[in-house]
Amino acid sequence: MEPDDPAEALTELRQRGLGWVELLQAAAGSGLAVYAVWALLLQPGFRRVPLRLQVPYAGASARQVENVLSLLRGRSGKLVDLGSGDGRIVLAAHRCGLRPAVGYELNPWLVGLARLHAWKAGCAGSVCYHREDLWKVSLRDCYNVSVFLAPSVLPLLEGKLQAELPEGARVVSGRFPLPTWQPAAVVGEGLDRVWAYDFHGGGPGEQAAPAPSSASVPRAPDPQTG
């Protein structure tokens, strides 16, 4: 597989799907009956979402979360996760000092699951999860943005980021790269690969910087532990 080939990466993601641990986690957190309704009727999102914009939900792996945090190390300010799923990246970012940490997710069951994880971790009053369309979210005060979205959405997202991000912001994209922006850093391999883009007013940086050593990547906290 070519390192930055979205089509092949998407095929691998669809084949991976939900593991039994994720299935058990969702079932235990929201009730088996509720999860069955979500899995059958709502996955990967609401039926009104065009097929080309859909991507099957698969929670970020521990390695993916670690890679995101490694590219945000040493930064401060607000963290926004667009399409925050079960909230694990928001929770991990908060624990690493990025505050406020906010997640936006359209699927109501995933929002509920994220809030449950935050409550179990003792962070219910410290992180925020909103059920909201990411296209309606203002990014004008967001200096740290995380996205794990379908490749078909990313060209549209580039326009929103270009129009709204403040100078000095960093965007971290997991699984799939932004199609036309040049990354400042890249970490990981395959589906665990994560790209960082620095925004300097006129647009993202044009020169790629060396990726941090994998030995320096912090261990991501388990979203279900306090």
From TrEMBL:
Region feature (Disordered): 202-226
Ranges annotated as biased composition (Low complexity): 208-226
Superkingdom per UniProt: Eukaryota
InterPro entries: FAM173A/B (IPR026170), SAM-dependent_MTases_sf (IPR029063)
Sequence intervals crossing the membrane: 20-42
Alphabetically ordered keywords of this record: Membrane, Methyltransferase, S-adenosyl-L-methionine, Transferase, Transmembrane, Transmembrane helix
PANTHER family: ADENINE NUCLEOTIDE TRANSLOCASE LYSINE N-METHYLTRANSFERASE (PTHR13610:SF5), METHYLTRANSFERASE DOMAIN-CONTAINING PROTEIN (PTHR13610)
Family: Belongs to the ANT/ATPSC lysine N-methyltransferase family.
Record's protein name: Adenine nucleotide translocase lysine methyltransferase
Organism expressing this protein natively: Pipistrellus nathusii (Nathusius' pipistrelle)
